[in-house]
Records
---
Amino acid sequence: MSLIEWKDEFKLGVPSVDHEHQELIELINSLGELMAAKGSYQVVVESLGEIYAQISGHFALEEKVMRDSHYPLYEDHKADHEILLDELLDIMDNVEDDGSYDAGALATGLDRWFSEHFGTHDAKLHHHYHR
Ligand SMILES: [Fe+2]
């Protein structure tokens, strides 16, 4: 089960950021596969933990790129990163509290969570680099 499809329009043109975006999508999709294979909830919690760790590192890189280039929408974009990380923690807490997971709800939640940021904040960043 592919949760997120890589699209070329996700490309920022900053190789390190693009590379990490692709890796993140792969990681999220491998969670989709774990769920499709009815992986235990512990395995899913572990996978979410990995996603969280990679994503916070990735956001830090994106923020550095933005700061270095004096990106005008930096504050806004960074604020959304913080919201996203909080939401991801909530998603993880829910799975942990329940001791089980709802694959459909988790897939929808993660896709919306990721795609919206990609489609808005990262897209603006993309346009900024392609002016
Ligand atoms: Fe971002």
---
Amino acid sequence: MSDRIHVAIVGGGIGGLAAANALLHRGIDVAVYEQASALGEVGAGVFIYPNSLRQLERMGLGAPLARVGAKVGPGSEYYRMDGSVVGKILTADSSGWNGMYGMHRGDLLQVLAEAVPSAAIHTGHRCTGFTQDEQGAHLSFANGHVAHADVVIAADGINSVLQKHVVEPSAPEYSGFRAYRGLISADRLPQWRREAHQVWMGDGKHFMVFPVRRGELLNYVGFVPTDNETVESWSAIGDRDELAASFAGWDPRVTELLDKVETCFWWGLYDRRPLGRWVNGRLALLGDAAHPMLPHLGQGANQAIEDGTALSVLLQACSGGKEIEEALQDYEALRRPRASFVQAEARKNGLRYDSKYKDLAQRDREIANSAQLRKSLYDFDIEKEAIDFRSRRTALA
Ligand SMILES: Cc1cc2nc3c(=O)[nH]c(=O)nc-3n(C[C@H](O)[C@H](O)[C@H](O)COP(=O)(O)OP(=O)(O)OC[C@H]3O[C@@H](n4cnc5c(N)ncnc54)[C@H](O)[C@@H]3O)c2cc1C
């Protein structure tokens, strides 16, 4: 009998597929179960930052990501709503490495999916049940299928069905904000700074633009307060007139872009307070199932990629039973403080971006100093942290 452990991942989003890549890279056997009939993400952007890009590159994904990512660097700035400059946005880690891309979500998912053997991806599998015993973990699916594994990773998003097997059920918290987002061909805005991440802040809302897909498309997002809870879905069609009206009178660069928008999506912004636990026996939460966060640092997917990398390092030396449970405890001990910090900082950054400050000069000072926070996010090397954690643990044993 093989002593290789087998990991079942529930959820084939960015977090689940990144975890599959990380585990395969370390020789761990995986199966991914996704409820949708096909893998996919709608047209919208996501930032990949140095903290996760260095991990993805080590997994061998550097070249395919470079083919579809958009370089982001020169001209990246924060502005007030009238377009006056508040400060620069840091686009490199402390070593000067510009390890970041603006990505189309579909492109990122495709790169992640293509690196996993197709036989290991099971679409049309909506997980409905989980049990575990000394022999292993057992999953059941709405289509009648059952699966067995040594470890189950719940990468099933903010409304995770598996989360209740780890913590008491609770509802995600609505932020009071709606994000309108979409893509526009860069050719339609010839004067636009093609490689810039630009953020306009003011009047209880904010607007940002960054390039995706080799710079051929611009991803825009308008964050607008609303009393009505908005459906939390990438595919809900937003009202482009309402979006344009929300930013009327802002910097002409913003209003000219919005004049050209024909359709957009909207998305209600939810997060959770940090969970008290992430693991139970053979089950571990990952990504938005563990730590959904507001998008104001662009770190949700990046933190999910860190989670998967940590799990791969910690599970690599396990051959079964007690070792697995200890490795998952270590995963929680290593990851929960970092992700909880980023969750809290994302909330704080939202207050800055939305100008929820009595004294805007104070907001501007904090924004101008935000390079420190970004450095601490970008410089973090979770693979190294996990290896050090495992070595300390072995030395103590
Ligand atoms: C407006 C906005 C902008 C953002 N921008 C960024 C950014 O720039 N950078 C960044 O890092 N993050 C960003 N994020 C956050 C990021 O999108 C999420 O953190 C990330 O997508 C979470 O990935 P996940 O795989 O954990 O969850 P999800 O992407 O939600 O994937 C969960 C998967 O599980 C599947 N699933 C659910 N239930 C079941 C079930 N019962 N059985 C089987 N499958 C199931 C779902 O179909 C889905 O495919 C942003 C978020 C928002 C709202």
